[in-house]
Amino acid sequence: MRRLLPWLFVVFLASVPQWMHDQYFLHVLINTGIFTIAAMSLNLLLGFTGQLSLGHVAFFGIGAYTSALVSLGFDLHFNDSYVFVFERKPVWFAFVCGIAVAGLCGWAIGRLSFKVRGAYFVIVTISFAQVMRLVALNWVDLTEGPMALNNIPPITLGIPGIWELTFLRKLPNYYLILCVAVLSYIVIHRLVHSRAGRAFIALRENEPLAASVGIDVTRYLVLATAVSAGMAGAAGGLYTHYVRIVDPDIFLFIYTVTMVIMVISGGKGTLAGPIVGGLIFGMLPQVLREFARPEAQWIIYGVAMMVIVLFLPQGIVPAISALWRRRSGRSPDRSDPESKTMAGLHTAPGAAP
Length: 353
Fold this sequence. Notes:
mainly alpha, two-stranded antiparallel sheet, two-stranded antiparallel ribbon, 15 helices, 6 strands, disordered C terminus
């Protein structure tokens, strides 16, 4: 039954536009879905390896800007005699480029920054996000600076001149984002249930012990960072082709805070946690708008976050799972990768997939 629940939930989400015809509510769901994908990507790094990245929005913004620039085309003026011209490419290709560039940046940052841990790693990631914001703000020839890149084409699939599907309206975008979210969930599920996933959890629980049994610490942390960054880049690409405009404010720190709230409240280190947290804290501001004054909305939002942290310190999903096990009299699920981490460490000293 537990294995069917995710798919039943997907079916429910797919049915929402069929009975909910409010276009504004659909817009809210689309934005919530985009940031839920970003939160899922952060959870791979924070929840399964224990590395807190407060600059995760950098990869979100890199994916957005790369996808926008490749789909629009651009030119770079190096001097008065040389101009590099990049012709516009199909939007699906631009979207893939955004994922690839974000993932490559994640790999590079991982290689450079995982020589440090703790507060030093947090400082490195925050600094990287601020540097990317300054680049987007000041490299006016490329990014248009504060004027923003606009008229970004929507995502289009198909064969030009024969058959094309353009994700211009809200309904197609909703299903596109739902498909990307499901694909992201499957990728994370397969990864964390692999030997690499057990290595991630081992590093989170006891890094010196994991290193002592032969796990390559840097290799697995860089892998997690690259996959996480690529997924965040996909969320950024979806965002920029949906709103069709992107400016340096996409690198604001508040977006990283939003992702962290979704992960922590839902339950870090769980597959469903960022989804539950994303839906709650993505929809909560819109629900509050119906009955609370603007100055009271953020107070209620903050109180809700504090209540979850105080009374459900592990998050909503772990609390519900623990309650379900107590009610049913079941022991913890031994199929969970975390429950097999130490066994995997002792049976596979090399731990190299």
